[in-house]
User: Fold Mitochondria-eating protein from Branchiostoma lanceolatum.
Amino acid sequence: MSERYYQFTDGARMDAVETLNKYFPRNKLTNDRLICETFEIAFEVATVAMSNIQEHLQILKNPTSGRALQPTQRAETRKEATEDQFKYSTKTSFGDEQARKIMESVSAYLRQTSDMVDTTPMEEDVLTELQKRRIYHEQHYQIDKNISEKFIPVFCKMAWQLAVQAPSLQIEYKQMAFSPDMHDVAEPTKKNKSGRSTCMSSTPKIKHYLWPALIDPQNGTVLRKGIVRLANS
Assistant:
């Protein structure tokens, strides 16, 4: 997945940027940020979908407990599932081994079918959220279905493939302190095809992400660096 993510960054991501440059040529300096934001939303949607699956699978520990969960308990179950994908506690009820095998089988099934899964519901959620975020501060952007279908489906597919790993791979796009171990710097005037640049700025604060970093949640290892623009760019 690390190599696939790298290829996706230089391939599908840049194709999406070129698509927006075609439809919105006046916004070339912000199109790459919009593409990154779209992927961030897709990953958030995929994470919620996986959390919902995990919440239902947790009931296998004790099938009769499902109807007794209160809303706050459901929220806590969802949090635990997200932080510890497909890990199974040894303190479970009768049938633990059978339930564990079922959960592992579901996990394997989701990974095996991740290339074929229908992401239409995700795509609709991503487009709705994207339009909601952009309508107030970017009047020049009118992202309709005709435009979005050129890149949102592949973004949703990649986000889903990251989410179904065991444990789920994570993307980082919220850390605003520049770290050379986690970030490559993109300069508007000195870009190669991928948008990467080794040119450094004396200001270590990040202005915004052009593509998230890929993180292994088990040990915090940076699998692929993110691409960022610094505050003084």
Q: What stands out?
A: The helical segments are 2-10, 12-23, 28-58, 71-83, 96-112, 120-134, 145-148, 152-163. The chain is about 50% helix and 10% strand.
